[in-house]
Specification:
single chain, about 725 residues, alpha/beta, 30 strands, about 20% strand
Length: about 725
């Protein structure tokens, strides 16, 4: 996976004056307390907030509320590191120019009405601001943004009402949101104890964007994990580079991607194009970059806070303990849904649980401790201790069913057990008393991760294990499987073809150059030639019309399978030619392919699509017509290695078909993964020449993996 970007990420030291300033000025403060500038100044300079100098700037006033007000940035006693600009749009450019001239480190622009309007003159106006800032090596946040917060500095840099609960603790997370309103809404989680170090927004992202902000936070020691609400980027390579910075810093990056439509698939030629849209590209890229992706916004902060607190898993098993049998069942259901293993306790653990839990309880996993265990602190501690000590378990999940003062002590007991064994405890806040007793204590316990949903809890545990696997799998660069001449050979064949959609014969010739096994075929132009070809390749045979204008042969009725006799071959030739000649608009027909029938096996589709932003992606799914019907596919950026291809097969819901379903011979997954990797190399090598590729199906039986059809669409100049 290799993507390049036109601008490198800003280094942390290039952003420190903006996001960790020592001095600040607010332009646009006035005697109106409801003005954006006045609110911003009050948020920054209020009691218990930012301790550095904060200057008021407005040429209309000498002082406001008994404090000096300066006419310009140049008139300040010192050059501020960061300037918040809250003036009308037409006045912004002059202020930005003055900041640049004075050597300001960064500016934050609240004003709207720039490039987001789509008007050419407003786009040009925003570009002028960017040109001024970059010429002075001054960073720019916005325009059209709500500002940012650095809670460790007491810096609440926004014109809106914002939560602030003091300096963050040691397990704080940071939040980056392209949407300011969504970010502000999420940041209110501080009200129930969530520990935030930063909340950064970027508005129109004319200069500093989400990728820069993630990079800055990756190097900031005040946060242990980063949450990001991500809409999209014109250059996703920059975000993936930021994700790599997070990996190097040992910080999990958790993302919720907004905008999940499959744009661009409407005009797709191949099956691949219809199932691998923009969301699939982002998901594939994030998967390979080790980014944790959550499908629901409501899961973002809980999941990120979990990753900020959780050590590396000591074991894949998870224990569940509750005082409610119903809660045990609910958690077991969600564990199964997300593939989280709940192994039975060891005999030693069971002996402890059986001694502590009354006969009407259920020692095991899930463990129904019953309410009686709660009567005294020691039995509860001993149950938690026994489960945490069991080497099969890396985490313990306990639902909090009722919020009242006596229950708060259990959270501390749970956290102590986790701390003693270097593991993580998960407290699922089932009670709908969302801010009830114990909520803050649970959020702030460094060894207890709090979830508001059983589903989100088990999904996070599954992601925890998956990310650990990913970290362990980071190794040397991929070793190429196909021969060096394959790239040039396939490129010359593509360039030589006059067809926008290559014929099956052309496609298979290119794939064969990459070591992909393909079925033999002979091109015929008459029924008698077809009979001769059938005798040569051996009956039974398959027959297909070859036409660059008929990409989907089944729908056009130009395929016949299982032809056993010469008479059947003659009849089939006439039928497929008649159907091909009836296609509207008229199709170019070069002949009829005759192929030996490949014995039945498991049918797999391997495709590729060149995404406008991400480049080549490889797609794997159940073959034949089912790929679009079932939408059961795995997607990665190409090329992939054999081990990554194996992971793709493991992700398929229908992967059981590879194991010898209903007595069929099991498919050799290693061999299939090798073929997938070779096809991905073809897609990566020819990214500038092809738009889409379908190898559908690959017929797989044991060691034998063979492509019986191939569709390749060239890029349109």
């Amino acid at each position: 996976m290799t993507l390049t970007a036109s601008r490198p990420l800003y280094r942390p030291e290039q952003l420190v004056r903006t996001f960790a300033p020592r001095s600040i000025a607010v332009v646009g403060v006035s005697t109106n307390p409801g003005a954006f500038g006045s609110i911003t100044y009050a948020n920054i300079a209020g009691p218990g907030r930012f301790t550095g100098p904060v200057y008021k700037v407005n040429a209309k006033y000498d002082q406001i509320d008994g404090q000096p007000c300066y006419p310009s940035i140049a008139a300040l006693p010192q050059t501020p590191d960061c300037v918040f600009i809250a003036v009308p749009r037409d006045a912004v450019e002059a202020v930005v120019a003055e900041c640049a001239q004075c050597g300001v480190g960064g500016v934050v622009l609240f004003s709207s009405g720039f490039a987001e309007t789509g008007l050419p003159e407003r786009i040009a106006q925003q570009q002028r601001l960017l040109d001024i800032a970059r010429a002075a090596d001054m960073r720019l946040v916005g325009p059209n943004c709500v500002g940012f917060m650095n809670y460790g500095l007491g810096l609440v840099g926004t014109f809106g009402t914002a939560s602030y609960k003091g300096a963050p603790g040691p397990h704080a997370i940071a939040l980056v949101s392209q949407s300011g309103a969504v970010g502000a809404a999420l940041a209110q989680a501080q009200e129930h104890g969530l520990c935030l170090s930063h909340m950064l927004t970027c508005g129109n992202a004319s200069d500093i964007d989400v990728a820069d902000q993630v990079t800055y936070l990756a190097n900031d020691p005040s946060c242990q994990a980063i949450a990001c609400v991500f809409e999209g980027m014109s250059e996703p390579a920059r975000f993936l580079a930021a994700a790599e910075m997070c990996r190097q810093a040992g910080k999990p990056l958790v993302v919720h991607k907004l905008g999940t439509s499959v744009r661009g698939a409407q005009a797709a030629v191949s099956h691949t194009g219809s199932v691998a849209g923009s969301q699939a590209a982002y998901r594939a890229a994030f998967e390979q970059a080790g980014v944790v992706m959550v499908d629901e916004l409501e899961a973002l902060l809980d999941t990120t806070s979990f990753f900020a607190k959780a050590p590396a898993p000591q074991a894949r098993g998870v224990a569940v303990a509750a005082v409610s049998g119903g809660a045990c069942i609910l958690l077991a259901d969600k564990a199964e849904l997300h593939g989280v293993d709940l192994p039975h306790p060891t005999p030693e653990t069971m002996a402890v649980l059986e001694r502590l839990i009354p006969e009407y309880g259920a020692p095991g996993n899930p463990c129904d401790m019953t309410a009686q265990v709660l009567a005294k602190p020691q039995p509860l501690h001993d149950c938690f201790e026994a489960l945490m000590a069991d080497p099969q378990y890396g985490a313990l999940v306990v639902p909090h069913t009722f919020a009242y003062a006596p229950a708060t002590a259990r959270i501390e007991t749970l956290g102590k057990a986790a701390a003693e064994h270097g593991k993580i405890a998960c407290n699922v806040w089932m009670t709908q008393h969302l801010e009830g007793p114990g909520a803050i204590e649970s959020e702030q316990n460094p060894h207890v991760a709090t979830f508001r949903s059983m589903n989100h809890c088990m999904a996070a545990l599954a992601a925890w294990h998956k990310r650990d696997d990913w970290l362990r799998g980071q190794g040397p660069a991929l070793a190429r499987l196909s021969s060096p001449p394959a790239r040039e050979r396939a490129a010359s064949l593509i360039d030589a073809s006059p067809n926008a959609t290559l014929t099956e014969r052309e496609g298979k010739e290119m794939l064969a150059a990459y070591g992909v096994p393909v079925v033999r075929d002979l091109l015929t132009h008459s029924a008698e030639e077809a009979v001769v070809a059938a005798r040569e390749v051996g009956l039974p045979v398959a027959m297909k019309v070859e036409s660059p204008d008929i990409p989907h042969k089944t729908e056009a009725g130009v395929i016949r399978l299982g032809l056993m006799t010469q008479d059947e071959v003659r009849e089939a030739f006439a039928q497929v030619m008649s159907n091909a000649q009836a296609v509207t608009p008229p199709a170019r027909i070069t002949g009829v392919l005759v192929q030996p029938m490949v014995p039945q096996g498991t049918e797999i589709m391997v495709g590729a699509r060149v995404d406008p932003q991400f480049g080549p992606m490889v797609v794997v799914g159940l073959g034949g017509i089912f790929v679009e019907l079932l939408k059961d596919t795995a997607v990665r950026l190409a090329p992939v290695g054999q081990q990554e291809a194996l992971k793709m097969l493991d992700e398929l819901k229908a992967q059981g078909a590879l194991n010898g379903f209903r007595g069929a011979q099991p498919v050799n997954r290693e061999r299939l993964a090798e073929v997938i990797a070779r096809i991905s190399e073809f897609a990566a090598d020819q990214r500038d020449r092809i738009a889409e590729l379908d190898v559908n199906p690959l017929i797989c039986v044991g060691e034998r993996i063979i492509a019986v059809d191939a569709l390749i669409a060239k890029q349109i100049p």
